[in-house]
Amino acid sequence: MTSGIGPLLFGMSVFIGGGAAVAGKIPAPDGEQLAAGRAVYLGYCASCHGENGEGQENWQRRDGNGELPAPPHDASGHSWRHSDDMLYRMISRGWRDPFNRTERLTMPAFGAMLSEQEIRDVIAYLKTLWTDEQRVYQDKASGAQ
Amino acid sequence: MSGIHSSLWQLRPAVILGLVWACLAATMPLLAQAESGQRTVNALVATESGLWVLEAEGLWRIEAGERTAVPLPIATASPDAFSVGANGALYLASRELGLYRSIDSGASWSRLTGGLPDKSITSVAAHSTLENIVYLYAPGEGIFRSKDAGDTWNLVDAGPPEPILTFLHSSMPGSMETGWLFAGTRRGVVRSMDCFCLWSDAGEKRGEVTVVAYDRAQPMHLYAIFDGRLHHSRNGGEDWEEIAAPKDVTAVAVSAEGRVYLGTRQGIYWQSGSHWERLDD
User: How close does chain A come to B155, measured CA to CA in Å?
Assistant: First the structure.
């Protein structure tokens, strides 16, 4: 078993340290940004999170490797529960659930592959997959940063 | 005297006897309990300023060996949920009476109502580090959160599939947000980051969990009562081992120094090495 404080500290270390750009509050996308965000999503995210943000099957249960599968980004998921800043950091630096049996980042770090604007664009696109209520909730969370 | 009044007058011995019997039935268990020293501890919270003890009979604070009664907001209340905020604010919940807060160590209480559910509140948990954030659970509704120390509330999550019997907020690292919630259910212990992204089983141990507590100094360390027996986890709930403890444990708390306290029907115990010592009342 690889759980324990070591992987937790590793997971934490993904977010430690300054220097990385933070999102700030991301406004609602216009048509151009929406298209750009959709393109980023299809190119970098859809292979795991689904073409329409539906996530992987049984995403709420650990798979045979002891890892949590990629969750949905649509209304059935929980992306809307995170602030823009948190979403930016997860996309930029990656993420692994601290209780995964492996130590790898199951959510890869895209900070070296995507520009700051591309990350902002894809976050703006994700918001179109949520309900109005979820957007309001997330907007408040982002505003409280 | 009229016929009806006469009949009622004749019934008065029976009525009086019935009232006396009802009073005895209500008080005898309490008298017996007090005489035998049995006091059910509903909750224990260890803070820097001492040990808070919530019993069926009232709220107490134990500090430097002294036990002091803390007046309840309503003398006849029987609160069954209690938590202490990061700034020392007290939160007390009763199924019948709702939620109360004290910011002066119990000298006075305020009733909290803003946005609270109509249904009874069965559990309250103050954020482990952020003094203005408090959570509560109402069966059938879910988890409510306040970001202003209880003045206003919003429903933030339906909670885990199994109803919550008890829960706490933990500062265990690794959360996407500010910490974790651990909850005892009839299925076992479940946990969620406090973003409420996903409730999942904490380990594979099953059983009814009525008490959960964690060690602030070692936040991966948890304590839980599974089917009446005390268990300890060193890894955030992934693995549990039973540890020997006095019988009838109803509450657990861990001090900042890592000392474990148990509330039982026989009194309060604290862990001294591998054995338990009775904390004098």
Answer: 11
* pTM, two decimal places: 0.85
Around Cβ A91, how many Cβ atoms within 10 Å?
25
Q: How remote is the C-alpha of B117 from its chain's centroid?
A: 19
Q: Which residue of A has its CA nearest to B157?
A: A81
A90 contacts B173? CB cut-off 8 A? no
Sign of the torsion angle spanned by Cα atoms B148, B152, B157, B158: positive
Name the more confident of B120 and B91: B91
Alpha-carbon B210 to chain mean position: 10
Pairing between β-strand B58-63 and β-strand B154-157 as defined by DSSP bridges: unpaired
Separation in Å, CA A67 to CA A82, B98, B220: 21, 41, 20
Residue A75, classified by CB atoms within 10 Å of its CB into exposed (0-12), middle (13-18) or buried (19+), is middle
Helix A84-93 to helix A116-127 angle (10° resolution) is 130
Q: Which residue of B has its CA nearest to A11?
A: B174
ipTM field = 0.81
Q: Name the β-bridge partners of B44.
A: B53
Q: Which two tokens stand for residue A68?
A: 């949590």
pLDDT, tens digit, for every residue of B230-279? 999 999 999 999 999 998 999 999 999 999 999 998 889 999 988 999 98
- According to DSSP, residue A26 is labeled P
Mutate to test the interface with A, among B154, B172, B176, B181 (most CBs of A within 10 A): B176
CB-facing half-sphere around the CA of A126: CA atoms within 13 A: 33
From chain A, the residues in CB contact with B200 under 8 A are 60, 99
Contact A3 B196 (CB under 8 A): no
